[in-house]
């Protein structure tokens, strides 16, 4: 009997220690999660690509036109963009209803940001509020981008006639240049709030707008 036990122990010692107590590698699990959402990622990023192509095309073309011709182009082009925005809103709503918000760990930073861009360009205020509520707790766990939250927060604040917190919307013009918005919550803390969510200093932001 003793020799049998020894034989069993020797046999067991030669078997690699696997499986029962092995933990899944986090990188492998994240790749697995992303692969499982490939169609969702492609859909969201694809919609955002269309969104940006439409807007860039219109802005680049109209910026070269004299003011008296600009409106004649922007009005019909804007109507086409608005119609596409509505289609994007419906598709994004369906994705969220079926799969939840596209978290960074399950998709990518680009996908999460693309989804917020689509929500920002939606004319459905109830949907925008839903998205803001969804991403607010995800920012704390690094599953949504804080600057995306800031942009959508400010957009809804301006709609509601409330002071914006981060100064991302409704910049005004002064002496032919962009200026700091006047509807700010506690203006003295603006730069600290922008830094906290990863936004560039206001002066740099305004300079970039002037350059565009």
Write a structural description.
This protein is mainly α and 212 residues long. The protein is built from nine helices and two strands. Strands 1-2 form a two-stranded antiparallel ribbon. Strand 1 and strand 2 form a beta hairpin. Helix 3 runs antiparallel to helix 4, helix 3 crosses helix 5 and helix 6 packs antiparallel against helix 7. The longest helix is centred in the middle third of the chain and has 33 residues. The mean pLDDT is 88.
- Number-wise, the strands total 2
Oligomer kind:
single chain
Strand order of the largest sheet: 1-2
Radius of gyration: 25 Å
Stretches with pLDDT under 50, minimum 5 residues: none
Mean of residue pLDDT values: 88
> Could you say which structural class the secondary elements and strand pairing correspond to?
mainly alpha
Share of helical residues:
55-70%
Order of helices and strands: HHHHHHHEEHH
Morphology: globular
Characteristics:
212 residues, mainly alpha, two-stranded antiparallel ribbon, 9 helices, 2 strands, globular
């Amino acid at each position: 009997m003793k020799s049998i036990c020894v034989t069993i122990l020797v046999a067991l010692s030669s078997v690699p220690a696997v499986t029962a107590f092995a933990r899944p590698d986090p990188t492998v699990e994240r790749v697995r999660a992303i692969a499982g959402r490939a169609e969702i990622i492609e859909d969201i990023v694809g919609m955002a690509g269309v969104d940006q192509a439409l807007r860039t095309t219109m802005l680049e073309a109209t910026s070269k036109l004299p003011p008296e011709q600009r409106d004649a182009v922007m009005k019909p082009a804007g109507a086409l963009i608005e119609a596409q925005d509505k289609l994007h809103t419906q598709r994004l709503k369906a994705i969220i209803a079926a799969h939840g918000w596209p978290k960074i760990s399950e998709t990518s930073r680009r996908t999460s940001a693309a989804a917020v861009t689509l929500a920002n360009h939606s004319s459905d205020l109830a949907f925008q509020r839903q998205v803001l509520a969804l991403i607010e707790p995800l920012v704390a766990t690094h599953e949504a981008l804080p600057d995306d939250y800031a942009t959508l927060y400010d957009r809804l604040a301006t709609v509601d006639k409330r002071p914006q917190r981060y100064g991302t919307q409704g910049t005004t013009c002064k002496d032919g240049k962009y200026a700091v918005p006047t509807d700010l919550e506690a203006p003295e803390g603006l730069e600290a709030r922008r830094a906290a969510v990863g936004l560039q200093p206001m002066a740099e932001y305004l300079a970039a707008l002037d350059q565009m």
